[in-house]
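Thread: Newbie trying to understand structure tokens

Hi all, I'm a second-year student working on a class project, and my supervisor (Dr. K.) asked me to get a predicted structure for one chain before our next meeting. I've only ever worked with sequences, so writing a 3D structure as a token string is new to me. If someone could post the tokens and maybe explain what I'm looking at, I'd be very grateful. Here's the chain:
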Amino acid sequence: MPDEPAPSDAALALARGMRAFDAALTDAQLVEIARGIDRSRAAGAALSPKKKRLANSVEPLTAVRIPGEPV
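---
Reply by user tm_fold:
Sure, no problem. This is what the structure looks like when written as tokens:
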């Protein structure tokens, strides 16, 4: 996306590591991968603004409901 800011140096470094898996990646593709890394980090920061980490024992609640069955 042309109006996006340049990716961070850390994201670019991670993206360059992807060439170990696909040596044919172009510089433009690496920049897009790096931007995706930055977007994911920003989304994570938005979900956890206090940087509180969950313990391994904390799991999301999984509830399955079958139509017609009593709750």
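A couple of things are worth pointing out once you decode it. Residues 9-46 form one domain. The longest helix spans residues 27-47. Feel free to ask follow-ups in this thread.
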